[in-house]
Amino acid sequence: MLSASTPDHTTLTRYGWDDAWNALVPDGAVPGRVARVDRGRVDVLTADDRVHADPRGHVPAVGDWVLVRDGTVSAVLPRRTALTRATVSGRSDAQVLAANVDTVLVVVPLDARLRPGRVERLLALAWEGGATPVVVLTKIDRDDGALVEALTDLADSAPGVDVVPVSAVTGDGLAEVAAAARGTTVLVGPSGAGKSTLANALLGVEAMATGAVRAVDGKGRHTTVHRELLPLPCRTELCGAAAPEAHHCGVLVDTPGLRAVGVRDAAEGIDRAFTDVVELGEGCRFTDCAHQHEPGCAVQEAVAGGTLPARRLEAYRKLLREDEWAAARTDARLAAERRGRWKQVTKEQRAAYRARGY
User: Fold this and answer.
1) Is 189 annotated as a binding residue?
2) Is 197 annotated in some ligand binding site?
3) Contact present, 186 and 103 (Cβ < 8 Å)
4) In terms of CB atoms within 10 Å, which end of the chain has fewer, N or C?
5) Least confident span in 37-51, 229-243, 299-313, 331-345
6) Contact, 116 vs 159, CB < 8 A?
7) Binding site annotation covers 192?
8) Shortest CA distance to 223 belongs to which of 197, 261, 246?
9) Strand 103-109 relative to strand 184-188: parallel, antiparallel, unpaired?
10) 82-254: which CATH architecture?
C-alpha cells in the first residue's frame, strides 16, 4: 500500500481527501474513509482498495476518515461535521448517522401527507451538525394538483433553504439536485420517500435496492437497511463535464428510513431551522421573552396577525423543550454514573481494609 506521506490524491480525493486531512497522518499509517459499518467490522476505502478492518475499540461512523494498520483501525481522525440524532433508547445518547457531511438532502415524497414537523427536525439536525440542508420533493411525476401547495408548505417550513422538486422517473429536476449535492451528501427521510431511487438516478447505476410503498398507508418498506458511502460520478447529462471519467462530484450516503428523529444538543440548529421565529423574537419588548403571554411579544403579534402560523411557533417550542429534556436527562445520567463509580470505589476500598484487618 502507499505510505501516508505520499497518498494517491487522484484516488483519495474522490472520497473527499485534502491536504488538511493529510497533515494529520503520521508516516506508516494508511488513511481511508469509512464506507460502511457492520458489527465488528468496518469497510474502508483506501488509495489502493476497499479493505475490511477491525475497529478495535473505536466507534467510527460512515464518512469518518480513519488510519488503518495491519487490518485494524488505529485512529479516527477528528470530525469536521457530523449528522447526529438522539437515539430511541430513552437514554438521550447520540447516534452519528454520518460524519464529515457537507450537504444533507431532506427527502420528502409528494404522494404522502406532508409532515412539516419531521422536515423541521431534520433541518435542525443538519444545521446543528454543520452541513447545508436542501429539501428535495420527490415523485413529482405523480402530481395530482398538490405540487404547488406542497412547495408552498415546504417553503414555510424551511425558510432560507432551497426546495428542489424532482422526479427520478422522468429526470425532471435531477440536474438541480445533482448541483445541490456538494461534497459529502447524505440522503435522509422516511421510508418510501424515494431516497434509494434518487440515489440510483444520481449514481447512474442500480446501486441501491428499491421497493414500493404500501397502498394501505403509503408507508415504505426498509429496502435500505444500512448506511453506505459511494463515490458520485460527474455525469455529463447532469453536470455538463466534458470528461466525466476525469471528474468527481463528491460522495453520496444513502440511509435507512428514519422513524424517530430525536434532537440532542441542537439549540443552535433549532434556531437556524426557525429563523422566522427567532428574527421576530428580536422585536419583543423583553429580551427573555418566552413568546407566551408577555406584553409586547412580537412573535405572538405575528401569530395573531396571521403572518406566522401558530403551528410553526408550537413546533419551535416543542423542539426546544425536547432538546432541554435531553440535556437534563444526559446530565442526570452522567451524575448517576459518577455516583455509581464512586460507590464501587468505596466498596472496593472497604473490602481491602477488611482483608487487611483494619
Assistant:
1) yes
2) yes
3) yes
4) C
5) 331-345
6) no
7) yes
8) 197
9) parallel
10) 3-Layer(aba) Sandwich (3.40)
Residue 46 annotated as binding?
A: no
CA distance 65 to 84: 17
- Residue boundaries of the structural domains of the chain: 9-76, 82-254, 274-308
In the numeric block, the cell 465488528 is attached to 40
Q: What residues have CB less than 8 Å from 249, skipping those under 6 apart?
A: 178, 181, 232, 233, 234, 235, 239
Query: pTM of this prediction?
Result: 0.82
**pLDDT of 273 over the 90 cut:** yes
CA distance 124 to 352: 51
Residue 43 in marked binding region: no
The span from the CA of 80 to the CA of 63, in Å, is 11
**Residue 128: DSSP 8-state:** H
Q: What is the DSSP string of 51-105?
A: EEEB-TT----TT-EEEEETTEEEEEPPPS-EEEEE-TTSS--EEEEEES-SEEE
Q: Is 307 flagged in the annotation as binding? A: no
92 is known to lie in a ligand binding site: no
Flag whether 234 is marked binding: no
Tell me the C-alpha distance between 120 and 355, whole Å: 60
190: annotated binding-site residue?
yes
CATH number of the domain at 274-308, out of 1.10.1420.10, 3.40.50.300, 1.10.40.50, 2.40.10.220? Answer: 1.10.40.50
Q: Tell me yes or no: is domain 9-76 CATH 3.40.50.2300.
A: no
Spatial separation of the C-alpha atoms in residues 350 and 346, rounded to whole Å: 6
- What rounded mean pLDDT belongs to the chain? 83
Kindly report, residue by residue over 183-214, the tens digit of the pLDDT: 999 999 988 888 989 999 998 877 565 544 44
Was 239 annotated as part of a binding site? no
C-alpha cell at 149: 401547495
| Fold matches, 9-76 and 274-308 | no
141 in a known ligand binding site = yes
Q: Is the distance from CB of 103 to CB of 131 less than 8 angstroms?
A: yes
